[in-house]
Each structure stands twice: as structure tokens, then as C-alpha cells.
Design a protein that fits this description.
mainly alpha, 2 domains, 68% helix
């Protein structure tokens, strides 16, 4: 019987590979949706997550359409997607996937100048099998509040009917340099020191102080939403939600709260 944590542990290694690329500022934007789709399907197998997985994997196939670390990341994602779709993968099949993921992580790590990436990949897998998804990816206090800012900014952008690329172009015409990859990471909750957040909010027709007040409300509302499903910590609630229900569910909770915070009047009940 295959351990329940095997596929989630593989997801954890893919997460770490993305961490390496982000730290090295190596573009991987095209692979984000495929990685999210694999995580969602591993966490919950439904018709909807299967269709999302098929579509997202088609977009990154063949992996040889790109080069370097992105190609290796795509190969790893597609290897895991193939294993996840098997009704009952054998130990031999999962061992083959593990070898493919470690090989991919080794190449990605080398490109990102990670010392001893193969060894680090094995450590990540062992820890993930033993402990489940690590919560250090979501340092609290701070991460959930940063994510609330990012989700609310995405709501403002989408309300303005702008893509990320269109907002970057609008910012550039106003003299504000915003790389698309940096905007994507900002909306995903990745801290960006010196991010021109107030400028972006103003370009989208908002007021910075009001925006930040709504972000606080979004964070607090998301924290309250988690309590009926068993989350106990008031400080590390996001990390606890990820550990129990997965990254997709946790982020969806904050996105929903951001939409609610944008719709509610500031002088109304939060």
C-alpha cells in the first residue's frame, strides 16, 4: 500500500523548486498554473480538478518548447501529473517518478545556484513524507496579511478589466516600472520590497488608505472563516489551514475574503 503522503510530498518538492527559481529570479511564470492544477488534483480528485489539470498540462507540453530550468520544471510537473492520474500507482511507478523529480530538481537547483541540489531534494522529500506539507513556506505573522494585499490588488485589477500585462503597461506609461513576473508574485503573496503598491492602487482608481483598510478586513474575515473547519491558531491560521486542507483551499479562502472586503462598505459590518 502506497503511503498517503507520497504524492503530496512530490508536490512539496515542486514547491521548493519554484522557491529556488524565485530566489534566483529565473522566470517560471508559464508553469504556475500547471503546478497549481497538479496540487489541486492531488488534494481533491473531482471532474473539475481533472479538467483543470488536463488544460494546464496541455499548456506546458511538450516541455522541450522551452529551455533551461523551465524545461526541467515542466518535465517534473508532467511526471507528477501522470502519476497522479493513475488509479493505483505502484511503488515501482512512484519510484520512477521520484527519480524524475530528483533529476529535475538537480538541474533546476544548479541553474539557481543551490548548493548540493540533489541532496536537498531528497531531504525535502523525506521531511515531507514524515511531516506533511511544511508550514515554513507561510511564515506568520505576516504571510496571510501579505497575501490579502495581493488578492485585493488582483480584485481591483480584475474589476478594472485589466490583465496583469495590461496593468504593467499602464504603470509604465505613468513612469512606474512593474515587471509582469513581479506583479504576479505580489498578487500571490510574495513580498516585494519597495513594491509601488500605492501607485498601482491609484492607477486602478482606488485610494491607498482605503485599500489597506480593506486588506486588513479581508485578512481578518479569512481568519474567521477558518474556525468552523477546525483551525485553532489565531496567528498561524493560514499555515494550519494549508497543512490540513492544502494550499489551494487556503488561498481560495483569502481570495473570497478579498472579494467580500471589496464589496462591503467600509462603514458596514466587517
Amino acid at each position: 500500500m502506497v503511503e498517503d503522503r507520497t504524492l503530496p510530498a512530490f508536490c512539496e518538492l515542486l514547491d521548493v523548486m519554484v522557491d529556488w527559481l524565485e530566489a534566483a529570479k529565473i522566470d517560471h511564470e508559464g508553469e504556475e498554473e500547471a503546478l497549481a492544477a497538479v496540487r489541486a488534483f492531488v488534494a481533491l480528485r473531482t471532474g473539475a480538478t481533472a479538467r483543470r489539470l488536463d488544460s494546464a498540462c496541455a499548456a506546458v507540453h511538450p516541455p522541450e518548447s522551452v529551455t533551461g530550468a523551465r524545461r526541467d520544471l515542466r518535465r517534473a510537473i508532467l511526471a507528477l501529473a501522470g502519476a497522479a492520474c493513475l488509479p493505483s500507482p505502484t511503488r515501482e511507478q512512484l519510484a520512477g517518478v521520484e527519480r524524475a523529480l530528483i533529476a529535475g530538481a538537480t538541474e533546476v537547483g544548479r541553474a539557481a545556484a543551490v548548493p548540493y541540489p540533489a541532496r536537498e531534494a531528497r531531504v525535502v522529500l523525506e521531511r515531507a513524507r514524515r511531516e506533511g506539507r511544511k508550514t515554513s513556506r507561510y511564515p506568520e505573522p505576516g504571510f496571510a496579511r501579505q497575501l490579502a494585499l495581493g488578492c485585493l490588488l488582483a480584485q481591483y485589477r480584475e474589476m478594472g478589466r485589466l490583465s496583469q500585462a495590461a496593468l504593467c503597461d499602464l504603470a509604465a506609461r505613468s513612469g512606474v516600472k512593474v515587471p509582469k513576473a513581479s506583479l504576479a508574485r505580489l498578487e500571490a503573496g510574495v513580498p516585494w520590497k519597495g513594491a509601488p503598491l500605492d501607485d498601482l492602487v491609484t492607477l486602478l482608481g482606488g485610494r491607498p488608505l482605503e485599500f489597506r483598510e480593506r486588506a486588513v478586513r479581508a485578512h481578518d474575515f479569512a481568519a474567521r472563516l477558518t474556525r468552523p473547519i477546525g483551525v485553532q491558531s489565531e496567528v498561524r491560521w493560514f499555515a494550519e489551514l494549508v497543512a490540513v486542507h492544502g494550499d489551494t483551499a487556503a488561498r481560495a479562502c483569502v481570495r473570497f475574503a478579498a472579494a467580500a472586503a471589496l464589496a462591503a462598505p467600509l462603514n458596514g459590518a466587517g
